[in-house]
Amino acid sequence: MKIKLFILVLLFNGLLIASDWSFLDINRIGAGQFIEKNPQNNGKDVVIIILDTGVDMGVPGLQKLPDGEVKVIDAQDFSGEGDVYFDKAEFGEENNEKFVSAPGNLKLYHYDKLTLQPVDSIFYIGVLHEDKFKNSVIPDINNNGKEDDDFGFIVFKSKEGWVAYIDLDGDGNLDDEQPVWNYKIKHQAIQFRGRDKKLNKNLATFAINIFPDEKRINFHYDGSSHGTHVAGIAAGYQLNGQKGLNGIAPGAKIISLKIGDCTLAGGATTTGSMLEAYEYGIEFAKKYDGPVVFNMSFGIGSEIEGQASMEFTLDEMLLENEKVLFCVSAGNEGPGISSVGLPAAANYVLSVGALNSKESARDVYGANIDQDKVFVFSSRGGELNKPDILTPGSASSTVPPFSTRENKWGTSMASPQATGAVALLMSAAYHDGLPLIGALFKKAIINSARPLKGYTILDQGAGVVFVPDAYQYYKKYIQRNEHKDFVYYRIETLSPMNEDNPARAAYWRLGNYLPDKHHKQAFKIKPEFRDSWNADQRNNFYRAFDLVADKSWIKLNKKSTYIKGEKPATIDVYFDQKQLDEPGLYTGKITAYRKEWSNKKMNKEFELWCTYVHPLFANEQNHYTLKSDLIKIKPGNVHRVFFDVPVRATSATIHLFTEGNKYANIRAYVFDPQGREIEQFSRLSSEYETQETIQLTGSQLEYGIYELDLYADFRSEEASYCTYLISFSGLEVSPNPINWLRMKNGENPRGTLSVFNYFDQPVLCQISGEISGWSKKTHVEDESEIYQQDFTVGSEVEKVEFQIELPADVFNLMTDFAINIKNYEGKILKADGLTYRKKKIVFIPPASGDYYLELIPAFASRDAQYWTATINENYYLFSKANIIGSREYFYPKTRKQTSFYVDGTLPVPPSGFRLFGNVNLNSLDRYRFKVIVPVELDAELR
């Protein structure tokens, strides 16, 4: 017994000094403290399943567990990126040397000298062409200075099962190679050879899987570094070979399930990859005699929040598999509210926002912040009661050898912190003989979290994870038998911004309207029973709750309620408008406690989130202008401004100013009424940009409440100061769009505008514009995984702009949507993807010629589905035709006619295209309005 204890102390000695490292902050969530007191519960016996871009199992930190065993126990690729197909080989002999060959004249010699031979005398042969990696970050996979190597391989069924011999050095001989098995069988990691080891490093580690029925072999690798970085945070042991530098749960094993194709922008998922990876992980969890937790640091923006196909799938999986838990990143679309993405909006997953801890900010970024902050990019809640919690969202972690970016930040880095925390809890529960219930681990983590001062629930959910407290909560839940009768709760209420789909929070962002005592808002709380419950258990279910609001402006129609059977509880809520008369963001919550226990946070069953946005209003009283006093923003903080777009407004201008000699290092973000960031942000600096202007016009401006967020960089040494001036124009122009011009021989093309000024101030404008080029709109209806559209760029074209738009319900069927522009050699020249359902892509061609646009929707289902999209392609010419107009005063409540002409000859568009451009009304006063009127001209002009 003493010998075993001594070995245990030696084994975990490297873990106990982890507190000296802040590059990967494990102490902010209490992980380091928990392991120090419970060294045997360092994640041991837990398997963490990483759904990502792959994991490089060859890097220091991901090779071994503390006990010396292999850390990465399985590696699968569901993205298809590493797929190579093989065929039946033919036999031959040359110069007394036997070979197998394949179409294309590939020959592999000395198969007859291999230790293993096929049981049926059948060899299969294939080749991994290095050209396959031309659109990856490592086009030269063996780092020998060439990008056209061929690595042949043979596959056959031996007495020990299916095996491969891979010509890793590309010399055509197999007798210098070792047999390679499916990775999970013998945990063989492979590297391609041929480099000068003194001069060139290895770039990546690969693993293989053989699928004989499909005649397919897959080469798993991490082609972006994202998955390897995530894995190191969750469970790395002695990262970079450093004793004491560990991830959150260094004793946990890892399974890498690759869902992202790294040849696509952002390592985008492919159709079915996410679904199939989760299914594979669930099947493993069912067979594995131990705890399993999933991490997925992937996602896109949410168009219909909480209603995406993948979100429903994840919820169903958790209902059916109660022992597991899914941890997912909340998204990087902040700091605007209502920006949590999919699938983080799924009800029962643990959605994780990103904390910027003081220690990490100091040692990784050299910043001296006054307290822990929520990272500016971390997605916020609103219509959804997400994120659930916060964990540190930056770290120095493991990356493949090709990468030099070991420091990363994002909710992608926060999610594996939470996953590691769950692994610690599961490890402790498993070793203590406690039942493993994923939903109770989630409940313990949320209820024990520590709120961050100065932030709303929309920013942080319950607050920062603290592992020691979470485990005490979990033990208490098991002690009082909650594992036997726990249920999930589905919360539904009115979504006033999308009445066709229910929300999970009261979210009012509609001018100054809000629920009052005559028009209450009803929350329905429905029990979601575990799959294992029978009809009697469901019918006999009863649970009562005490209800407590944390803000006095939240009014309830009852102080307690109950759920009986499958009938939902209904709770009516309204807001006291007298307490909400100042502009700003108001957030609060109603907490439901189990009635048989005390009203302590340990006993929280569910929460009802309430949000009211009281905007600034522009009207005749303030001449449609909103002006601030001096604003002070501490480093790392966000100052939010909500403003309502007045009726008849056709443009808005946001002016930002520094103040005298005061310091400023500010980024300004603008979010539309749905919480989507407008694709521009401005930087205000006392040193460089002392004034900034953001113009909103055309499709960027819609009725509703916008959010202007002013963020002071957390790396600044002092507070930032600024003021803003937001002004609106009410110039309504017709026709809109302009779709015809008058043409007479010998004269310039001319047009006429009618302008009405709906607002109360005269506006002096200069009218100008241009005919930019030609355009075409395409309506796509497709059922495939890849849609291609050819286009030709002539020497007269400067750039091509593609505007891609999907219906919201179609976008919700997907997990990603990748976009490529390629030449006809297959080289990607531009890669991007949809964060939301609309995207603008600008392509500057390297030369005139033929190219093609590639759209790659990734469906949440196993196979591609019917989908639609609209593509506007705009070709901007080098020689644009200028539009000349006059300088005009537009007086209040008055209509005025004005004219313009095109200076020069109109270009002739190709067949099927139309000319496009715009006429601009640029105000010459200090407000600098810009009203844009699109020009869309058919080839036949009148």
From TrEMBL:
A single GO molecular-function term is: serine-type endopeptidase activity
The catalytic residues are: D52, H226, S412
InterPro entries attached to this UniProt entry: Peptidase_S8/S53_dom, Peptidase_S8/S53_dom_sf, Peptidase_S8/S53_subtilisin, Peptidase_S8_His-AS, Peptidase_S8_Ser-AS, Peptidase_S8_subtilisin-rel, TPPII_Ig-like_sf
| Keywords tagged on the record | Hydrolase, Protease, Serine protease
Q: Which residues form the Peptidase S8/S53 domain?
A: 43-463
Q: Name one GO biological process term.
A: proteolysis
Is the keyword Protease in the record?
yes
Keyword Protease assigned: yes
A Pfam short name: Peptidase_S8
Stored Gene3D superfamilies: 2.60.40.3170, Peptidase S8/S53 domain
Q: Which family does it belong to?
A: Belongs to the peptidase S8 family.
What is the recorded name of this protein?
A: Peptidase S8/S53 domain-containing protein
Q: Which organism is it from?
A: Caldithrix abyssi
